[in-house]
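The protein record quoted in full:
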Amino acid sequence: MDSFNIEHILTFPIKEAGARKNFLIGILVYFAGFIIPILPMVLVMGYVARIMRQVINGEEPHMPAWDDWESMLQDGARIYGVRIVYTLPLFVIFFPLFIGSMGLPLWMDSTNNSNEMLILLPIILFGLMMLVIVPLSLALGIIVPAAEAHTIAHNEFAAGFRIREWWRIFRANLGGFIIAYLISMIASLVLTIITQIAMATLILICLLPFIFPATMLYIMLVMYTAFAQAYRDGQNRISQ
């Protein structure tokens, strides 16, 4: 049976004193990513991977201690590598369309070109970009976490590219992966609204450098925990 416990997924990062302590450490590590490039974010991703592994192994998700930094770096690098490879085609499509839609008006302005077809072309390119990028981003947002979870489940980078293996799990619980995506999107929307309110408040805006990392870390924890649950439920469906 599917075992989504939405309440626990949403509350485990801050529910207990120990969890809040480790969440605070995570905020500080995330914050360090604004100063030190790449490394802190890889560590955060590796920490999230430890929680994914808990869920995949049948445990309730909980906030572990920030230790075994080497393993966190390895796990984080694996997940980042898998995500970069799978999302690279998106950037290949996005970049020329973006350059065309943004650069063409500047070129027309500099050359005093008033051709009506050229004036419409940036709008057409932007519309085409939205028609291609939005559905593709949505599909990748649901599918790629299955490859990432497979990478963590097998502790190897190559596992993320054994598509036939993880696709069986994804297909067995497609509804679960969609639910996981919706959970992460709703949590992201709510926290974005809270952040916007904070920005409009004179006192809270001073805390924005800490509110933003806390928000992003929480969204990552919820999102990847939900996807790990969907992955585990897919495994269970296959075994049954």
